[in-house]
Amino acid sequence: MQTVFDYLFIIALYFAVIGLAFFFSWGASWVFRKLSARLQARRGPPAYQPIADIIKLFGKERFTPALSNKFLYILSPLLALSAILILSFMIPPGTPLWPGPLAFDLIVILYFSVMFSLAFVIAGWASGSTWGKIGASREVVMILSVELPLAIALLIPSLALARGGFSFSLSITDVISAQQGTFIWILPNWFLFRYPLAAIALFLTLLTKSWMRPFGDIPEAEQEIFAGSLTEYGGPLLGIFELARLFRFYVFTALFVDLYLGGGVGFVFPFDLLIFLAKCLVIVILMTIVHVASARYRISHVFKWFLTVCLAFALFSLIRVLVGF
Amino acid sequence: MVKITAIKEALKALFKPATTKYPHGPPSHVPPGLRGLPQFSDENCIGCGACVVCCSANAISMKDEGDTRTLSIFYPRCVFCGRCEDICPEDGISLTEQFELATTDKKNAEVTIVFKLVRCSQCGDVISTRKHLDKIKERIMTNVDATVKEEVVRDLPKYETLCGECRRKLSYELNTHTQKYYARRWES
Amino acid sequence: MQIDKVTAPEYVVPLGPFHPALLEGEYFKLKVEGEKVLDVDLKLGYNYRGIMKLAESRSYHQNIYLFERVCGICSAAHTTAYTQTAEMLGGIELPDRARYIRTLIAELERIHSHLLWAGVGMELIGFKTLFMLIWRDREHVLDVLEAISGNRQHYAMNTIGGVRKDIDKDMIPKIEEKLKLLHKATETATKAVLEDGGIRARTKGIGTLDKEIARKICVVGPVARATGMAIDVRKDDPYAAYDEIPFDIITAEGGDILSMAIVRLGELVESVKISQFCLDKLKTVGGPIRAEVKEFPTGEAVGRVEAPRGELMYYLVSNGTNIPERARVRTPSYLNDYALLFMLPGESLADVPITVASVDPCMACTDRMCSVTDHRIQIHKTGTLRDLSKSFR
Amino acid sequence: MIDPAIIIIVLYLAAALTLIGLRVKRANDVISILATGFALLAVILNFLLFPPWISLPGILGLDFTVNGYTNLIALIATFIGFLVVMYSIRYIEHRKSSYSVFVLLTMGSLVGMAYSWNLFWVFVFAELATITSTFLIAHHFKTTSLEGGIKYLIIQFFASIFVIVGLGLIYQEAQVFGYAGIGVFSIEFLLTSGILTGFIGKLSLFLIFLGFLVKVPSFPIHTWLPDASTAAPASISTLLHAMMIKVAGMPAFLILLLFYSFFISVTFWVVICSLGVLTMLVCVIIAFAQDDLKRLLAFDSVSQMGYVILGLGIGGLAITYYSLSADSLWLVVAAGGITAGLFHLLNHSLFKSVLFFSAGAIEHETGTRDINKLGGLLQAMPTTGYVMLIGSLAIAGVPLLNGFTSKWMIYNACIAAGQPAFALIAIFTSALTFAVFLRLLCSVFLGQAPGTYDKVHPAPKIMVVPSLILAAGCILFGFLPQIALVLLIFPATVVLLPTAIPPPMNPLFWVSLDLFLLATLLFIGLIVGYVLYRIKGGAQPIKADEKTMPFTGGALKDPYLKVDEARPASTVFSHPFKPLLNGFRRTHTGLVNFYIVWFVLFALLLLSLLFVGWI
Questions:
Q1: So what's the pLDDT on residue D96?
Q2: Of B18, B34, B81, the CB nearest to C156
Q3: How far is residue D17 from each of residues A71, B37, D29, D33, measured CA to CA in Å?
C-alpha cells in the first residue's frame, strides 16, 4: 500500500511529466506543421504558432449554442483534456519513472484512449449541430474500426514477454526493459524487428488516432462536415480541445516508441530521455510524411481497411506470438 | 497505394517553397505591364473628362466646385480594365504597376487631380478647365481652315470666356451663328 | 412475430449555401440515410447580380468589362463569346494575328481553369499536398497570362474587332519556356492523380452520370465528354483560329469522377499543344491586331464558345445605338449543375463535395441580382448592383 | 442470522395477503414494500452475521444453506426486487390486481433458488419462478405480451426437460429411491460422494447445465429473452434481466462449481470460454441494429452475460491447469477469473437495472420505445438522462465506473491464463457496447426533440430514486471496487474455490489500488480544464439566441429547411455493419419451433463433443 507521501510524490511527478509532454508536443506540433508546409511548397509557421493559436482562443468570448446541452457541452472538452493528461502520465518517457505497484497497464491505456475519443463524440452530440452529429457518428465508427487492431498490437509486446505462462506483464515499463540487447547481428532487440507487421498495424492505428490522413481526419473533414464534432465550439472551450489535441503528438508517438522502438533502453538517465524524444520525433516526421502524401478516405474505407488488412497484420503477429515462432 | 509521384514531388518541394513571406517581405515579382492603380499624369492630363464617360465601372468621377475641377478615381470600384488609358486623347491617365492598394480608411482610397476651372463670364456656368481650353485653342489654331482663320483669330477672345449657351447667344448677336456662318459660306 | 429491422428513417442534411466545399452560394437539400444520400434537391440563385439588365444600360465596349466579370475563371471565354457576337452584329472580320492571340489566351485560360479544378478536386478529397503542388504549377500559366495581359485573372485582352495588346517577339521564347514547364507539370499531375490508390478509391465509380441521362439533360463540356459524347464547340463550330489548329477531343467512358478527371487532365495536354501551335504561328503571322469598329446595325446575333466548363452562348440584340437592346448569357454551369441531381443519389455524404466539384460548377456564371435578406423583418431587399454599390460608397 | 425459509415464507404470505386485498392497490404496495424490504434486510443481516457453511435441514427436506455465494445471489435478488417493487408503484398504475401477487411469488421463488444448496430444490424453485414470471410477462394480456409469455414458457419448459433427464440420471446412478433420496442432490453430497466421477455422472451434470444455460442465457439459445422483455412491462424486464437471469442462471454457475471438480479438461473450458465470447460478440452486434429501446437493452444483457461466462470459464481453465501442473500461481488466475465473473454479475445487475428503469421512465413519459422517434430528452428529463449516461458509461466500461473494473479483471485473467484472443474479443465487444450505448444515448437524450415531445415531464420521483441508488452503486464500485471485492465477491469465490488467493495477495486485483490515484488525476485534469475555461474572468457568456443558434450551414432561417428538420440519422453508426446485421436478422425469425431446433442442435453439438470424449 502507498503512504500519503508516495501519493503526493506521484502527483508532483504527474505535473513534471505533463510539462515534458507539453513541451515535446509543442515542438512536435511545430515540426509537423513546418514540415508539412515545406512538403507542400509552403513556408510554414514560426515556432510559437501552435501555442499562439491556442492562447488566442482563450481570449475569445464564451458562449453555448441555444440548442446544446450546456453541461455536456462544457464537460466534454474538460474530459478530453483530463483523459489525455492521464494518458501522457501513464506512458513513461522511455524509462520507468514511478515507484510502487502502479497498475497503469496497457488495458487502462487503451480504455483512456477510448475515453479521449468519447469526449469528442459527446461534444458533437451535445452541441446540437447537424455537422457535430455526423462528425460524432464518424468518430464512433472510427473507434470501432481501430479498436481491435489497436488492442492486439498493443498487447503483442506484453504477450511476447510471457508466451502463455503466468509470468505475463501488461506494464509498459516491463515491455521497455525487455527490449534490451540485440536481435539478429546488430539489429536492436526491438519489437519493431520482431513483429514488424504488428508494428505497421499499430502505426496505422496511432496515425488514425492522431487525426492524420489517410484515415484520421475523416471525423473532422473540413470539406465535408466543417469541423465535425467541434463545429459548434469556439473560444476557450475550443482552446481546451486544441490543447488536448496538442498532446497527441506526445501520447501516440511515445506509445509506439515505448512498445516497438525500445524507448530509451540501453542508456543512462539524461541520455535515455533524449534518445526517446529523438525517436518520438522520428515517428512524428514519419507520420507527417504519410499524412502529407495521402488523400482522405471515406469512412466505409476505414472500416474495411482496419478490419481486414490491419487486423490481418495484427492477427498474424498474434498467432506468431501464441505459437511462438 | 502507389503514391511515389506525389511523395517525390513533395520531397522535391521540401527546400523550394513556392510562397514568399509576402506581407512581411517583398512580393516575388511584379511583371512589366501589370495593370495596377490608374494614375493621372500631372503634365498630360487636361481634365477633359473622357475617362469619366468611358469608365466601365463608374470608378472615375468629376466634380466641379468653385473654380476647381476635381477628377477622382475611387479605386475600390476600379476594375483595372485599362479602358481609360485606351480612350484618353492625351496620355493623361495610365495604369501603374502599383497593386498594394489596401487601406483602412475609405477616404484614402481615391486618386485625385485638381484643375483650375474656367467659368463663363456671363452666366457663371462651367466651361472646362484652363488646360483643356488651352489645348482646344492650340488644336484650333493648328487645324483651323485657312479661309476662316482671320475671323477665328479675331473672334476667339470674345468666345473664350463663355459657356456654350452664352456662346450661342453671342454668336447670334454677332451674327456669327453657325447656321448663318455656313449659310454665308454656301452663298459664297 | 417481431423481426429485427435494420431500418432508418429519412433525415435531411443541408449542404450550403455556406459550406467549405462550396465556395459559392448553392444549396443542396440532401435526404440521407446514415451517410448515404437518398435524394437531392438543388437551389440556386442566391446572388443574382443583374448583369444582363446592367448590360442594357452600357455601351458595347463597356460591356466587355462587365461580361468579363460574369465569372473570374473563364473571363476570356466570356469576352470572346461576347465580342464574337458583337462582331457578328457589326459584321467585323478579325485580323489573323488577333485570332491567334485570342486562341492562345483561351487555351491558356483553359489550362489555368483545369489546373484549378484539379487542385480543388484534390483538396475536396483531402489531398492537400497535391492541391498545393498543382496550384504551384498553375502559377506558371498565371505568370504567362500576367505577362501577356497585365493581370492574373481578368485579362481584358479581347475587344470588339480584335485584341487590345500584342504579344512581343521577345516575349515568345519566355512563354515557350513556361509552356515546357507546364507540359511537365501537367504530366506529373496526371501521373500523380491517376496512380494514387487513395484518389482512385475516392473517385472511381463515384457520382456516375449515365450517358442517356446526360444526353437528355444536355450536359456540355468535359462533363459530356466524360460520358463518351464527343462534343466540343471548338470542333463543331470553330471560332477564332480553331479551324486551322489540329487537336483531339478527349473523351472517356464511364461518366464517373475519375473519367471527368481523365478528360480534364487530357485536355490540359491538348491545350498546351494548341498554345504552342499558336505561338509558332504568332512568330510568322504579322499584321494588325484590331479591326475598325463602325456601328452596330439593328439585328440580333448568337455566338458560342467552348469555355473551360463547356459550351458558352451569348445572344445580343442591337437597336442601332451604341447600347445593346438585350443581352443574354447562357453559361455551361446552368446545364451541368442539374446533372448533380442524377449524380448525387446513392453516394455517401463524404463524396458529395467531390461529386459537386466534378461538374466544376460556377455559381458566378449562373447567379446574376443582389438579394440582401434582412433576417429580422424577413423582407427581401433587392436592387441593382449599381444602387447597392452606391450605398457602399 | 435469519433462516432463509422465514424469508420465503414471509414473501409467500405477503403474496397471499395481497390476494385478500386485491382491490386496494395502495395496500398492495405497502405489503409488497414491507415484504421485500424485510427480505432485503434479512439478507443483509445474513451477510453481516452468518457463520460460514451452515446447513438448515428443513421440515420438508428443504436444503437451505447460508454462505457467501448464496448470500450474494440472494442479495442481488432481494435488492433489485425491492427497487422493482418501489419502481412499479408509479410505473404500472393501471395494472392488473394480480401484479403484486406474482411479483412477490416470483421473488419468493427466487430467494428460495438462491439459498437452495440442493439441485432438486433449485429445480423446483426455478420452475415456480418460471411459471409465476410468465404471468408477469403476459401482464398486459395483449396479443404481443401473451405471445411473448407463451414463447417464454415453452422454451423454458423445453429446457427443463434436460434438467429432469439429468436429475433422473443422477438418481439412477445413486441408486437411492423414494423421497429421502432427494438428499442425493445436495451439492455437498455430490461433491464428496463421487457418484459424478463416471461418464453418466458427467453426462447428467452436463444436461442439467444445458437446461439452466437457457436461463442465463448463452448465445444460440438467447432468443427468448429479447422477445420476453419486449413484451413485459419495464419493471418486469428489469426483474427478468437484473435478477431473474442471474438468479435463475445461478444453478448453471453452481453446476460450474461441480464442473470445477469433475471436468479436468482444457478443451471443455475452452469451449465454455468460446461460448462466452461468442455470446458477447454476436449479441452486441445484434443489439446494434435494434431500434426498440428495450430490445436493444435485452440483447446487450445477453452480451454482458457472455463476460460472466468468460470469467467463470477462465476460472475453470485455470483450475484445470492447476490440477495438471500443481503450480499454485494458477490458483491466482482461477480466483481472479471467478471473482471477475461474479463481480461482473453484480455490476451488470446494477447498471442494467439503471438502464431498464430509465427506459421504463422514458416509455412512461413519452409513450414510445423507438429510439429514432425520440430525441432531446435531456432537457425534459435531466435526472433520467444523467443516470442513464452513468449506466451506459458503466456498461461500456469507461474507467472509474464499476463496469471497467470487472472487465479489466476479466481481461487480465484471460491474458494470465494464456488466452489473449478471448481478451481481445472482449475488448472489441466492449468497444461495440460503447458504440451501442452512444447511439442510444445520443439519439434519445441529445440533439433536438422532433417536436412532439415538447411537453414531456420528468419522471415521478419514486421512479427515479431506484435508478439513482443504483447509479450511486455504480460510481461507488467504480471508485472503490475493494469494497465489493472484499465484502461481497470474495466470500462467494471462496465457496466455489476454497483454495482461492485472497484479494490483497492477488495481483489481478491490484487495479483497485490505483483507481483512487487515477480518480485524483482525472479530477486534477478536470480542474485544470475548468480553470482554463474560466480564466477570462469577467466575460459573461453571451445570451442572444439568434447569435448562438447552432450552425446548420446557413439555412437556419430559410423557409426551405427548418432547423429541427436537419437531423442526421441515428443509425449512422450501424451503417457499416449493414450486411452483417441483415444476415443476423434472417436468423431471428421469431418462431418458437425454430428456436427450439436451435437449442436442440446446440445441445446435440455439445453432447456429441462429450460423447466423443473431447470434453
A1: 66
A2: B81
A3: 48, 100, 11, 13
